[in-house]
Design brief:
The complex is a heterodimer of chains A (399) and B (511). The two termini of chain A are 28 Å apart. Chain A is 75% helix and 1% strand. Chain A is built from 18 helices and two strands. Chain A is an all-alpha fold. By secondary structure, chain B is an alpha/beta fold. Chain B is built from 17 helices and 22 strands. In chain B, strands 6-7-8-3-9-10 form a six-stranded mixed sheet, sandwiched between helices. Classes of the chains: A mainly alpha (399), B alpha/beta (511). The A-B interface holds A 1, 7-8, 11, 207, 211, 213-214, 265-268, 270, 273-274, 277-278, 280-288, 344-345, 399 and B 313-314, 316, 336-342, 347, 349, 354-361, 365, 369-370, 372-373, 376, 379-381, 383-384, 387, 391, 395, 402-403, 405, 407, 409, 423.
Amino acid sequence: MPANNEKNNLGGTQFNLGAFLTKNSMTIALVVVFILFYFLTNGRLLYAQNMSNLLLQNGYVLVMACGMLLCILTGGNIDLSVGSVICMVGGVAAVMITNNGMNIFLTILVCLLLGLAAGIWQGYWIGYVRIPPFITTLGGMFIFRGIGRLVLDSKTVSVQDATFLNIFTAYIKIPGLDSDGRILSPLVVGIVAVVIILYSTFSSRANKAKKGYRQNSALSDYGRSVVISAVLLVYCYMLSQYKGISVMLVWVVVICLIYNFITSRTAFGRYFYAVGGNEKATQLSGINTNKVYFIAYANMGFLAGLCGLLCLARVGSVNGSTGTSFEMDAIGSCFIGGASAYGGSGTVPGVIIGALLLGVINMGMSIMGIGDSWQYIVKGGVLLVAVIFDVVSSRKSGK
Amino acid sequence: MADIILEMKAITKEFPGVKALDNVNLVVERGEIHALIGENGAGKSTLMNVLSGTYPAGSYDGEIYYNGELCQFKTLKDSEAKGIVIIHQELALIPLLTIGENMFLGNEKKDRFGNIDWDMTYNEAETHMRQVGLNESAQTLIKDIGTGKQQLVEIAKAFSKNVKLLILDEPTSSLNDEDAKMLLDLLMEFKKNGLTSIIITHKLNEIIYCADQATIIRDGSTIETLVKGVDEFSEDRIIKGMVGRSMDDRYPAREHHVREEIGLEVKNWTVHHPLYHEKVVDKDISFHVHKGEVIGFSGLQGAGRTELAMSIFGRSYGSGISGELYLDGQKVDLKSPEQAIRHKLAYVTEDRKTNGLILGESIRFNTTLARLDKICANGVIDTTKEKNVAEEMKEAMGTKTPSVEQKVGNLSGGNQQKALLGKWMFTEPDVLILDEPTRGIDVGAKYDIYCLINQMVEEGKSVIMISSEMPELIGMCDRIYIMNEGELRGELDAKEATQEKIMSHIISADK
């Protein structure tokens, strides 16, 4: 066995530029687009305020995309109803808080359960009755939008309750680190994160070396973590230059980390890949595939409910058309981020890259003063190009 | 001198790793019914696909002469233009379209503006339908007529293409005796009008009834052609030709240690079709397998063996399942594959690509899928452990691959089969059901798998082997059960079993 591994090590240490480019194509695209807009906006894209807003504006997309990824993994199935769930949940929250003055925490709990209930409703039909997801969620899209409008009585309801807004949108102030003049907490958080990243890279390599496993070249492993660390530090520095870390950002980062863990490390997460890869084989391996579908959609409903709260807090109000076409941003992020349209492949980091790519395009064009219409055209084009690239390159490598 | 309509010379066709046809010759005379016989996988269908252009010229070696001229068909359309029409076992009709629409699908009757001329379509359709004795309206939907009539529609469709040479692949497999006889009589009627037919069938009595000549194919080679009235033309003679291969040491020797204890026993097992609940797929079947024993299930495709196995494996097939199942002497009721796996039962599917493996994922991923809990702590996968067990299984199965991270889809058939076996060995089964474990893999890999089977029974496991290759069953099993049309037809001790005996058990059901 050791002899075998030595051979593998040789294969692993070579650096292959072509493979590197294909594997990281979307990251490279993100960098290229970023640089492009940096120049097109005369550097304004990189202003601390814009950088801070980039993640906050797209926070809801990231959260939804994590849930959408699970649906897409099961076989390229999408959930069209999330935008409407956002409207319904946001509407209920706004009415509970503003019109009825109800307890904030009770409201949040009710709203999260409401999102989950919407998800369970759809998950049941999709998972156990096997109604096609497209039809089920198209139905949900109309139903939940309608309920949202009923609740709002077709009006715009705003929320000014400080407790509610603080839970989602306040900026974190740590006594001693942050004062009015200087904000140091982002830097501290950044440095801690970098230390964790570098240490885990090091320890995972040491662990693999000890057990004689195949590993990537040192250049690619360390190179990757150094680049990520550098980006993180720069970003944290920018946050410290603006208002610091928003609670919203914490919510988003925590969700992304949880779903990354679920999809990459747990048995439960693996079922989604298995179902998308070959449902029949998965079934015969003793896995309840109905349940997998059910959970994918129940979970999507829950996350859409959370997004409803995030959107309400960020915008401050909700009306009958809140959330329109948000589902398309989430779906687009997944496909741009390399999730297969046939299911079975896709990662949370990929989805984050996809969402950021869309976000940078949006923001860059907004700064340049280019209107909505063009943004739609460009976003659509990027989505198509990304998927064409994915399909063609996987065809070439004979996947 | 006979009038030769078709001559296929030295046809050789290879698939990656498998030689499906090796130097096959076929001569068909004008105006005869020519039977093509052989076991499952002998190469009959491949040969007909070569002839019809489904496998285009250039993808095989050898020459095809039709009406004396060399033909190089690139597509099905090319061969149809010459009047060669093939009717497959699975009918290519669309249930929700009418008979007329189906008959001219892809070949629509159009007026000069390019619109479909429905009057002409239905009129011509009915003309051809009358030729085959169908009196339905051409506007009847396909789903509303029975299988027997659907078969006739296919033949009528062939007539609409001006057929000269009609090839029928197992035309009577889904028909009852009456419909089957009607179809054969019809073919003999057409013969008088000069139509040439090639008929592929397992039912030897039908061959005796209608064929003028019979060519026997075995293991991808032509063995002989029997001519009615010249050679002996009997079922026994044909069986001898079909199975007459030698049984040298293709099977590793095993010391037989069949133990007293019974590993699995099934009593009065009846299974209904999952969609058509009134259709019985397996009828009142009882069998058992001891620990340390290999039993085989022999039968033709559609005998209900796979359905039997899958219904036992946590009801993964069928509806209205009744009967009793005992594992290790305990009566159990397995409601899902998960419960079956918990009770140490494993089913290794006959169709590794569709039902067995996740081709886009690695060997590691596939190996652990059925028992992820074994490498998990609190639902979190221990990746180090996973890699280790995948490596162990790879070594134990002798899977040839650079790494367990290799995608299963990139492996050869034999190595995929080993990866699939590894996956099920990882579930630590006591009873293994192997469904066609050596289908589509080369001789070397077959031998490896036989050795693995011997090793399993050596450890006291029970192995149930379903196979369409009779020599394999005779070579590997202790006992052989024979099934046909959903019923158990007999049981033979492997020592006394011969292919002729097995075949006659199967055939006797059809008489």
